Amino acid sequence: MEQINYPRVTKIIEETDPLEKKQALMRWLKKMQKVHGIEGAETERQKILDNGTLVHESIEKFLVDDPLANGIHPQARPLYGFLNQIKFNSDRLIIENRLFCHKYRYQGKPDLICTYNGLPTIIDWTTSYQLKKEKYVEHKFIQAGAYAIASELELGIKIQQLVVVVIVANPNTYQVFVEPPSKWRIAFLRRLGMYNRLHGIKRK
Predict the structure, then answer these.
(1) How many CB atoms neighbour CB 81 within 10 A?
(2) What's the longest Cα–Cα distance across the chain?
(3) Phi and psi (nearest 5°) for 100?
(4) Helix (H, G, I), strand (E, B) or coil at 65
(5) Core vs surface per residue 50-71: b (16+ CB within 10 A) or e
(6) pTM summary value
(7) Is 62:83 a contact under the CB 8 Å cutoff?
(8) Which residues contact 8 (CB under 8 A, 6 or more apart)?
(9) Cα four-point dihedral sign 101, 102, 104, 105
(10) What is the Cα–Cα distance from 60 to 187, expressed in whole angstroms?
(11) pLDDT tens digit sequence for 67-84
């Protein structure tokens, strides 16, 4: 049962984030506390997390023809065409399937492994209040790079592209960022090395 002790990809990335990103998060939290108070800021943060969960769940159910009682989440409605393209043109739909990468000793759940534009693809869904620049989703590509490694080693699926889809509330739209996996696989392995050093973990 050793595999259950593997660190999660999200934890590895979070603990090895650069200082400036951690400082930016703290500034955002302080701004929220100034507006809503400490307890109110936590309530608002939880609302954001809960909304993201509902959007993810809605997309997953749509892809497997198991819709929520109230239909697809309003924020995800602009995705209809995009989702149908994936749904009807994929030779595989692997949704939220936990992967254990035994070679590098980590685990995680990619949002979706599918065929997109004819290529084996990992897609990560993320929600945002407003439009984002690609540099603000780089951590999502690092995360997807980890899943690309695990997908090849554990499932035998060689991922050829990584896609981050930002589902935007204002305006109600979405953005699609596409990257080849090679540099993001390397970026994740560097983060994993940092994480292992932080925790005194030695590779066998």
Answers:
(1) 7
(2) 50
(3) -110, 115
(4) coil
(5) ebbebbbebbbbbbeeeeeeee
(6) 0.89
(7) yes
(8) 106, 107, 108
(9) positive
(10) 28
(11) 666 678 899 999 999 999
d(CA 138, CA 93): 24
CA–CA distance, 100 with 46 (Å, rounded to integer): 28
Place of tokens 């991922």: 159
pLDDT digits (tens, 9 = 90+) for 82-106: 999 999 999 889 999 999 999 999 9
| Per-residue pLDDT reduced to its tens digit, 138-169 | 999 999 999 999 999 999 999 999 999 999 99
For the chain, counts of helices (H) and of strands (E): 5, 7
| Phi, psi (deg, nearest 5) at residue 188 | -65, -45
The answer to whether 16 touches 194, Cβ cutoff 8 Å, is yes
3-state helix, strand, coil in the chain (%, to 5): 55, 20, 25
Distance CA 141, CA 180 (A): 10
Tokens 């739209």, located at residue: 173
DSSP 8-state assignment for residue 7: P
Q: What is the DSSP letter of 8?
A: B
Share of the chain above pLDDT 90, in %: 72
